[in-house]
């Protein structure tokens, strides 16, 4: 039974609230053969879409999860797609007659049936360098899947510190609710941005860097030890988590303004 059928049955007295609760609990999980259980009501319950971590999955399994998820929800994110799977997966998705949003230098895609309406909050997305763009784009796709408008500006790091001021001015004028900052090497941009604005900052240390503190370790340590308040940090290269947190903040702010 669909959710509206269950509710109508309770209203008409055909089933008890106890039975309805059981049916609704069952409805929230969709099993794909014997290898995946999909939380299809997550977006309704938490505002967070289903995300398929594709890096360690077989292509056929990813296809099955996508298909099952789209039967019950409007959108799904597929993150960290293997290079050899990317084009094949895009071709498969096109056969489903749905829309796809991709990100520059990113192996994450957003798949949706109906156009996503940006009725949530607004999130700013910044990168220190061009090498950080792929991770930032993962965050952008996550925010947009959660109905947030995004304002992006890339390659504005501390190596040319004057580049950051015009875009920060724009973000303040646009009244963004949260700013995501992706930075590798020493990760200094997140601290800098946090000192300049009264807006929550989500820092993403990226694995850009080499030598001592390589693979994002220096950027992570730098952001975690920042003396600037108002900065929180996710794991190395975790654009999905940063997008989820930022969109959650932005949507709650927007919800309170509307109410």
TrEMBL record:
One of its GO terms (biological process) is 'de novo' IMP biosynthetic process. Pfam families: AIRC. GO terms for molecular function: hydrolase activity. Residues 121-255 form the PurE domain. InterPro entries: P2CMN_synthase_LarB, PurE_dom. NCBIfam families: LarB. This is AIR carboxylase. It comes from Candidatus Nitrosomarinus catalinensis.
